[in-house]
Design a protein that fits this description.
This protein is about 65% helix and about 10% strand. It is built from five helices and three strands, in the order H-H-E-H-H-E-E-H. It has a three-stranded antiparallel β-sheet with strand order 1-3-2. Helix 2 (about 25-40) crosses helix 5. The protein is globular and about 50 Å long.
Length: about 100
């Protein structure tokens, strides 16, 4: 029963995160949300892209080219360093502020 409840809680948490990800309208917001969640879960500021940029774009329901363009803008602003297959977060607070735009 304990394992079942753990699995159920995990699935519920993942669905809640997915729903929140889809609630953001901007691609930069979706990328920022994803990066911040992954950083909190791993405790690291270097995030490995899930599979490829194309797969990551599919997870976020955006086009690959649009995601790439927004990541380059975030990099130009000094918030992240983007070198596939990893993204390094430089400014957590500024990335959090992207979510409120």
């Amino acid at each position: 029963m304990k394992n079942f409840m753990t699995e159920l809680a995990t699935a519920s948490f993942m669905l809640q995160q997915r729903l929140e990800l889809m609630s953001y309208s901007g691609i930069a917001q979706k990328a920022a949300f994803y990066l911040l969640i992954q950083a909190r879960q791993s405790g690291k500021n270097v995030i490995k892209i899930p599979g490829s940029v194309s797969n990551w774009a599919m997870v976020m329901n955006v086009s690959r080219s649009s995601l790439h363009r927004e990541l380059k803008k975030l990099e130009a602003d000094g918030l992240i360093s983007y070198a596939p297959p990893v993204v390094e977060i430089h400014d957590f607070d500024a990335l959090q502020n992207v979510l409120s735009k």
